[in-house]
Amino acid sequence: MSQLYEGKKGEKVLFMGNQAIARGALEAGVSVAAGYPGTPSSEIIENLADVSKEANMYVEWSANEKIAVEVAAAASFAGLRSMCTMKQNGVNVASDFLLHLVLSGTRGGMVLVPCDDPGALSSINEGEARHFAKLLEIPLLEAGDFQEAKDMLKWAFELSEEIHNLVMFRSVTRLSHASGSVELGEIPHTEPQAKFVNNGFILDPLEGPIVSAPVGYKHGLQQDKLKKAEELFEESPFNTYVGPENPEILLITSSGATLYSREAIHLCNAKDKVGLLKLGTTFPLPSKLIAKHLKTTDKVLVVEEVLPFMEENLKVLAQELAPEVGQKTFYGKRSGNIPMTGELNPDLVATALATLLGDAYSPQDQEYQTKAAQQVFFNAPVRDLTFCPGCPHRASFWSIHNVLAADNREGFVCGDIGCYSMAFLPSGFSTLKTLHAMGSGTGVASGFGKLGQFGLDQPVVSVCGDSTFFHSGIPALVNAIHHKSDITMVILDNSGTGMTGFQSHPGLPVDAQGNESPALDIPTICRALGATVEVCDPFYPYKTQQTFHKLLEAPGAKVLVLRQICALSPEKKGKKQFEMSVDEDVCLGENCGCNKLCTRVFRCPGLRWDEEKKVATIDEVICAGCGMCAAICPSGAITRKEVA
Amino acid sequence: MGTATLTKDPYNLIITGVGGQGNVLASRVLGNLLADQGFSITIGETFGASQRGGSVMSHMRISAGESWSPQIPQGQADMVVALEPIEALRVLHTYGHPGVKVISNTRSIYPVGVISGDNKYPSMDELKTIIEDLTESVWFINATDAAMKLGNPIFGNIMMVGALAKTGVLPIDRDGFEKVMLRTMGEKKTPVNLKAFDMGAEMIT
């Protein structure tokens, strides 16, 4: 998709939201971009990395989000434009540095792009980065469609330079991962020079050393910057109003909810009654603009995802403005008209709007709906989340589960974020018993491993992916080793950030821009830290189980690296290592002592149970040819043949 | 450019299937095909938390003018392209109505609950009857088997695009498809995709 860089001004293209954001950064002349992969944010850095050489940019996947912000901040301190991207959870990781950065201020334009995931479509929480804008006291921008995603990001850099502070540009899954038509602007061709000037007076924001002290003074300065942003927001073209002069209801919305709101007004056929105030600048709120619109009506419906962030800020403002605009009635999340959790859609907004208009909104033909619902209930088996066919994690958890079951001391596994989070489901034999932030599996295990003095005698295991190991697994392991915590950490090394699409990390011999890079060896690091370390291939379950069992018995912090490349990795995708087959004469079917171990328990999507013949079969469309099922079949009926 | 017209505005298309079947690619190709003709397109994608095995859906809004929401309102799909038959049924439940059209692949992909023996998967004959009853018109094609003959089941998605073109519900054709392929896939991969497109079209009678 070379349109990202080569597309000319005025050209109309179909861009994914994240591509529009990347193009906006290019049109802003950004020099440095850093991030940590996380759905739905990852494609921004990926797209920029692809064109980094032509665009004279430096782009990296940093080891974690805090470091990504630090790397981008350095560029800003040296006078360059820079940005960093992450999913909502990443801002939590970065917040320690961010709280200092917003006091010390920035020089070259710097934009933080968090992508939130309302509805947790690919997350295990639906936390919001917007609240950090308030905590950090920095301007917050939210694009309402794909065109704005590009245009507004470019403007975010100008704003940052105007107030010399960080600006937050928040996206959501349905913008980042949706696509829409975008008209391109110009990419500037300049050669910015980096220089870190640090010899000026300590209070000189552009030439002095960069520190957050004196805090009282800098904090005041920071709030002045925010005030300045609010003034600029009053005239921002990203705040728009469509509708009658005196609407029956004023609908105030922002971000992805803008598209739902527009559609809801259409669905309710309420263009003449409902005014749509779309805000692109959502913190701080432009008070004069809000006052102007509040004057036009008495009823206000606030539509946003997920928590009532804008709603609560609007209410504070409306109270302050009450002498001028009068008392208003607000509808939204606190009134129960808009759900407090999950993502929105046109139907939810239309339902809320119809209620306020005194109508009922019925989206579907009732008779049809009932008939279809019955058919789905009786005939459409649910598709549970599952590890891919050929996934090394299924094999890893097979071994972990079996050893812990055989050990019989109620051992358990503490997990964290990655494809392997699914191990709390039957797909991973329900092996995972705690699941929180990245790196937390090992941190929590480190705590459990010290509870022996209080009588805890269950074996404690943690799992951690290779990218997560570098992100936040290392400090947790350091903690466990130093405190002689009795844990076995299993590092599931599938050679890439599998869940988000194989972004590079410090363990790989290549960086985001495709340059050769020194790969840091995980077993060597763990040994250097002082752990006992073993390395196995999870596709050889007996060796793996033997080794895991041995480590489980030893005291202190031990590490088992289970290394097998992801089935979807570019090197492996579509290439089978083994051609699998079932010998129907050997398969004992339901009479086998295993009672269909392969399909009933192992549950790989590449296997099927032939109801007529009462034997297992291989689904050649699905099977990835990993060979693992041959290793688990007790009758030796499943065989593997190396593919030449 | 811009001379073609839609039978309905916005025209709402859903492409559905199981992760790994090339659903997202199919929606990109179609989106580009229609955008090239000057239509305003919005595509919303469900990226499953599992890359393979989960239900996946792309919502496409095709309009001569406006940008629409990346989620189609309930009961408002005009056409459903299903790479897996049970997913067609699942989509009809939420987005169907008596006037909806469907093109469905006939090769099933079993959910793990079916593999493990916890759930049943209906026979293709039963499924056909159910889907026919819930649609105005429906085409069933065995795209996966045809794609296997072409060397890889993944071509099933492009066959569905070819089949969609042949139904004539949208202003898309082979020339436009070729242009998009050359731009996005390059000269090497275009011929085999054109072949898949043609094979898909031939299966619509």
What's the arrangement of strands in the largest beta sheet of chain A?
3-2-4-5-7-6-12
The number of distinct structural domains of chain B comes to: 1
User: Strand percentage of chain A, roughly?
Assistant: 15-25%
Largest sheet of chain A: 7 strands, mixed
Strand content of chain B: 15-25%
Q: In one word, what is the shape of chain A?
A: globular
Domain Pyruvate/ketoisovalerate oxidoreductase catalytic (chain B): 19-202
Protein name (chain B): Indolepyruvate ferredoxin oxidoreductase, beta subunit
GO molecular function (chain B): indolepyruvate ferredoxin oxidoreductase activity
EC number (chain B): 1.2.7.8
Keywords:
heterodimer; A: 644 residues; alpha/beta; seven-stranded mixed sheet; six-stranded parallel sheet; 21 helices; 24 strands; globular; B: 205 residues; Pyruvate-ferredoxin Oxidoreductase, domain 3; six-stranded mixed sheet; 40% helix; 18% strand
What does this structure look like?
The complex is a heterodimer of chains A (644) and B (205). In chain A, 37% of the residues lie in helices and 18% in strands. Chain A has 21 helices and 24 strands. In chain A, helix 11 crosses helix 12. The longest helix of chain A is centred in the middle third of the chain and has 20 residues, at 215-234. Chain B is built from 8 helices and 6 strands, in the order βαβββαβααβαααα. Chain B has a single domain (11-202), classed as Pyruvate-ferredoxin oxidoreductase, PFOR, domain III (Pyruvate-ferredoxin Oxidoreductase, domain 3, 3-Layer(aba) Sandwich), CATH 3.40.920. In chain B, helix 1 (23-35) packs parallel to helix 6 (156-167), helix 2 (85-95) packs parallel to helix 4 (124-133) and helix 6 packs across helix 8 (190-202). At the A-B interface, strand 1, strand 8, helix 10, helix 13 and helix 14 of A face helix 1, strand 2, helix 2, helix 3 and helix 4 of B. Chain B: GO terms for molecular function: indolepyruvate ferredoxin oxidoreductase activity.
